Amino acid sequence: MKLLKKILLPVNPEYYTRETLDFTIQLAKLYQSEIIPIHIIGKEAEFMSIRDIAHKIAEEHIKKVQSRIKKEGINTVDPVIDFGNHFDRIAIAALKYDVNVILFGIRIGTEQEGSSLNLNIEKVIRHCDKPVWAVKEGQKGMIKKILCPVDFSEASKRALLNAIHISHKFDAKLTLLSVYTPLKTRFPLLAGEFTKENKESYSEYNDHFKAFLNDFTFPGSAPALAVRTGVPEQEILREIKEKKHDLLIMGSTGRTALGRFMTGSVTEKVIRQVPCSFITTKSEDMIDLRLETKINTIEHHYNIARHKQKSGLLDEAIGEYLICLSLNDMHIASLFGLSEIYGRKGMKDKEALYKRMAVEIINRLFKDNIIPG
What we know:
Number of strands: 11
Number of domains: 3
CATH superfamily of the largest domain: HUPs
Largest sheet: 11 strands, mixed
Order of helices and strands: EHEHEEHEHEEHEHHEHEHHEHHHH
Shape: flat
CATH architecture of the largest domain: 3-Layer(aba) Sandwich
Radius of gyration: 25 Å
CATH topology of the largest domain: Rossmann fold
Helix content: 40-55%
Distance between the termini: 18 Å
Number of helices: 14
């Protein structure tokens, strides 16, 4: 059972560096993911003579990438080479292969140079429902500090659920940021009229923030909480620069359609200037959160079963092991646990039955190369 099955990796030079591949391989190892490399040849190569040359160059490049992936022991598929508009063909490939995430490399310019986010990456984020992970050029090693802005919308809930899992998986510090926009910011000409209203509104906003977080469970250490006052995109960028976060995780839609029409997408404004790697989520999760919940539930009942078994409460332990098997009938540890208990109870037939079931599953997994030999 894999939480992040497939990663689509565009390998055109404008999206790709050796560091991008290094990070993708680290990510694939962490999640046992499959990497799907793709190279898009632009429409300008439609003429047959140019097309053949372009295809040959792309084929040589993508084979080198695939060779490196295989050398690292990562599963991959036949390289994908396609012709047409980059963002269009990438989005279509993401749907065709049903990937969990599209991973791009990005170059971060200086403040003087301004944004350098590739226009095709922006278009993929805007038009494709798949999550996008943009890895900053020069990033080395794993993520240590993650920022997830929330505005209490469904989009930010989805982003936060992914951020909770990723921070736990990477053992990274998670910071949750919410930005309160006072009335004086929205109506500057009337700024002096809103002192009392802003004070009351800010208090209500903090209460709303705390209530919003009550719906989430945070494994490990609790996240850091931050509330800033001002324009959302400006405060998000200021938080990243001041606290030097490695990764930003945001939902890519705003609160309401009217809000997006009136102010533009906060996410789009942020990612054009963000000085770190980022993930955007839309209507699909990057991580299979339903599967993660199921795995966590199995682990919970299995731990109870082991505790009951060690305490001599064998019948109660049997009940917990059976719950695990109802969630996953190939849960080997529960099968062995039941075999042990029935052995202690002198029920040799059931002891042998559950042990045989566990061994048969192990042999099948070895045969299918699901468990490495």
